[in-house]
Amino acid sequence: MLENLIVFVLASFIGFEVISKVPQTLHTPLMSGTNAISGIAIVGALMAAAMAGGDWAKWLGFAALVVATINVIGGFMVTDRMLQMFKKKEKN
Amino acid sequence: MIETLIDIAYLVAASFFIFGMKRLQSPATARQGNRLSAIAMFIAVLATMFVADILTPVEMLIGVVLGGGIGLLLARRVELTSMPELVGALNGFGGLASALVAGAELSRYLTNDSSAQASTLAIADFDPSVGITILLSVLIGVVTFSGSFIAVGKLSGKISGNPISFPGMRLLTLLLAAGAIGAFVMVVMNYSTILSEPDPILWSLVGMAGIAFFLGILLVIPIGGADMPVVVALLNSYSGLAAAATGFVLDNTALIVSGALVGASGLILTKIMCDAMNRSLLNVLLGGFGGDADDSMVSSASQDGKSINQTSADDVAIMLSYADQVVVVPGYGMAVAQAQHQVRELADLLQSKGVRVKYAIHPVAGRMPGHMNVLLAEANVPYDQLYEMDDINGDFDNTDVSLIIGANDVVNPAARHDKASPIYGMPILNVDNSRNVIVLKRSMRPGYSGVQNELFFNDNTRMLFGDAKDSISSLTEEVKLV
């Protein structure tokens, strides 16, 4: 538990460092992109869905898997769609 | 051995996430960064599926296909103008996923199938810290879920953008918070009898989910439309924290690291949004500030004996055509009118006549962080023409015309000097320093803060009333004629 806490705190510091330099222009893609990253819960969902536990565990895991996949696929795709619009001066 | 492999894969994934987020520091590398994060996610998923040898159940494939299909559809089909709603909804799904995983984990403890004990996915003994982290994960996850969907409702206009409150709301919130604490206590008191007497544990979980659901609603409904950027950023942070909490439950480093990164990023955005409004987070969360302006708030066209100056499209067109520098200041009104393409057309035309056109973007313009930037990017406005507040404020002295399109409170000079104003102290765009200010507006309605804008009564301000899209189109036509 303590180890996990250390990892959590250190990772938060990295997050603060990396993100505080993101320009305002990219705030929306930043949100949707990081949101897709928070879909990492999909890893937990996979484990839960595959578990030989009771029916409840299975169904909760299945629901988690569906929702987490929406989050991951939707998040990364929509971020990509937004970012491809951000262009410097056009060529003409 | 297998577990080491999985852990290494997770470490690689976490590092890629950090690199990916780092590339978001510049629009030139951002797309690549996002792809790097997506690859990292793929690595984590693959490692979990193959290395842990849990590829068999058909349900899993169905789940991935179903969720992936919905995600794909949402990402492709949703109009870019509905981006705030989509981002909010995805936040909600993220929170819900974390909560569901925690719930599934608890039901594994409750059934404690001995056949699973031998596999790599065996679970440790149930102890108070596991119980607390599961409940915490459900609490944050479900609050994120219900709060996000209320925010989506507000952003799409299905729920009133006005702050909603009712008598006893604060008390109800406190009672729910007390109930949540009660659930924690119940788990700690009953953890040792989880197998013989699972009911107290089960009910504390169900109770927590219900409490969190209503808590999420109560946290967002009192917040007014103008404060939505803060809420969206905060919910983004919550979705990360929920994933991190689930990581504690599963003892999974990948979830903890990624969750912490997202939590930190959301928190920074929240702080930037709060600073841009000169308000504390607590002040925003307590709510009751600003909402959708309605007709009863229409105030007179004069103030302190000064009156507004109305103008017409042909006058403005002449002014724009002979300017050296024009600064466009977009606000939520531009988003509502969907006028970004027309704005770009006008800017192109002016640029071809040798006018320098810049865009000034206030951090809280619109309904989510970076809202204006996305809309203008959609209209193909190059991002190097977009200026942040601090970079452009000194430049208004050299500006011939500031064109205010549907922005209001963020250009109200009262924020600088009127201590009685509710927006006093909020950093604003100093458009009143430019030689001429043209305000495109539908009517004399005040902004979301509910205060009248003294900018409109300045001698160098001209008002051009009408729908932003129509006004800009007719401006473009007139400029062509000059």
Strand order of the largest sheet of chain B: 5-4-3-6-7-8
H and E order of chain B = HHHHHHHHHHEEHEHHEHEHEHEEH
Q: How would a textbook summarize the main sheet of chain A? A: none
- State mean pLDDT of chain B (0 to 100 scale): 86
SSE layout and pairing:
The complex is a heterodimer of chains A (92) and B (482).
Chain A: H1 2-19, H2 27-38, H3 41-50, H4 55-83
Helix pairs in contact in A: 2-4, 3-4
Chain B: H1 2-22, H2 27-51, H3 58-77, H4 83-111, H5 128-156, H6 169-190, H7 199-220, H8 228-250, H9 253-277, H10 281-286, E1 302-303, E2 306-307, H11 313-321, E3 325-330, H12 332-337, H13 340-352, E4 356-361, H14 371-378, E5 386-388, H15 389-392, E6 401-405, H16 414-417, E7 436-441, E8 461-465, H17 468-481
Parallel strand pairs in B: 3-4, 3-6, 4-5, 6-7, 7-8
Antiparallel strand pairs in B: 1-2
Helix pairs in contact in B: 1-2, 1-9, 4-5, 4-8, 5-6, 5-7, 5-8, 6-7, 8-9, 11-17, 13-17
Textual characterization of the structure:
The complex is a heterodimer of chains A (92) and B (482). By secondary structure, chain A is mainly alpha-helical. Helices cover 75% and strands 0% of the residues of chain A. The termini of chain A are far apart. Chain B is of the alpha/beta class. Chain B folds into two domains: 78-286, no CATH class; 295-481, TPP-binding domain (Rossmann fold, 3-Layer(aba) Sandwich), CATH 3.40.50.1220. Helix content of chain B is 58%, strand content 7%. Chain B is built from 17 helices and eight strands. In chain B, the strands form two sheets. In chain B, strands 5-4-3-6-7-8 form a six-stranded parallel sheet. In chain B, strands 1-2 form a two-stranded antiparallel sheet. In chain B, α5 (128-156) runs antiparallel to α6 (169-190), α5 (128-156) packs parallel to α7 and α5 (128-156) runs antiparallel to α8. Chain B is elongated. The interface between A and B is large, with 82 and 118 residues.
